[in-house]
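Hi all, posting the design record for the shared folder.

TITLE: backbone redesign
STEP: 1 of 1
STRUCTURE INPUT:
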């Protein structure tokens, strides 16, 4: 055993160490590589030792999701995170006039920055979106993040009712990724030219689009078709549409 391994072994096992090691494993091999056995091996402990800190695999995954969202909050910055997540909302209607947020600026720009910051963290952990859509993943850090999203909307002139609609419209995009409607599996690459020709004849619009689009930057993806430019396009369309809805409601 090397000196560094011995030093690691002497470090008391903690929940924080367990989650940190789990993230390291997932960053290298994806979430499928994260098992209780692989985690125990990385920490150089017996698998049963892990259960003093996490009840089961589901609790491990929920905790890892919390840590990743905690990274997002840190990336946003301590002062911004506290202000956006827990600021007192001025006015009974929950908003400042003209779509502005405290300190000036358009609520759209403020929310866009927050969302793209979240996305930058998720791109470091491309396996994390799958965890954030699991039942039970809505922990304290996730709640704090979305409280910040709502704070931006309310201070930008949204009523609570319209802000609720906005959260539903944004969906997973509010925290930096888009869920795919469908995603072809790896076997789609093995489809014969004859089958492709038949599909092109029967599904001309869909196949025409598939042949026309291209994603040249796989590092910007958090899903099959979730590249950075498409994500930002979708966010901008949604934010512009929500601003139009806010103006209509306030007219």
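Okay, here is what came back for every position:
SEQUENCE:
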């Amino acid at each position: 055993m090397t000196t560094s391994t011995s030093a690691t072994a002497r470090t008391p096992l903690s929940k924080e160490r367990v989650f940190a090691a789990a993230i390291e494993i997932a960053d290298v091999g994806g979430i499928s590589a994260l098992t209780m056995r692989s985690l125990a091996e990385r920490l150089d402990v017996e698998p049963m030792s892990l259960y003093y800190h996490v009840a089961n695999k589901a609790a491990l995954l929920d905790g890892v999701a919390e840590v990743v969202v905690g990274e997002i909050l840190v990336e946003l910055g301590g002062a911004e995170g506290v202000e956006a997540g827990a600021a007192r909302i001025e006015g009974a209607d929950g908003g400042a006039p003209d779509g502005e947020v405290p300190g000036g600026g358009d609520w759209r720009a403020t929310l866009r920055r927050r969302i793209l910051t979240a996305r930058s963290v998720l791109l470091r952990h491309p396996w994390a979106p799958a965890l954030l859509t699991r039942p039970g993943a809505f922990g304290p850090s996730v709640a704090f993040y979305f409280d910040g999203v709502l704070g931006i909307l309310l201070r930008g002139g949204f009523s609570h009712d319209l802000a609720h609609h906005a959260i539903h419209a944004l969906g997973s995009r509010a925290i930096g990724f888009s869920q795919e409607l469908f995603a072809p599996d790896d076997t789609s690459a093995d489809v014969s030219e004859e089958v492709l020709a038949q599909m092109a004849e029967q599904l001309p619009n869909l196949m025409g689009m598939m042949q026309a689009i291209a994603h040249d930057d796989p590092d910007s993806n958090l899903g099959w078709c979730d590249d950075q430019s498409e994500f930002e396009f979708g966010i901008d369309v949604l934010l512009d549409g929500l601003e139009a809805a806010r103006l209509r409601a306030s007219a």
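COMMENT: Residues 1-54 form a domain with the Arc Repressor Mutant, subunit A fold (CATH 1.10.10.60).
Let me know if anyone wants the other runs.
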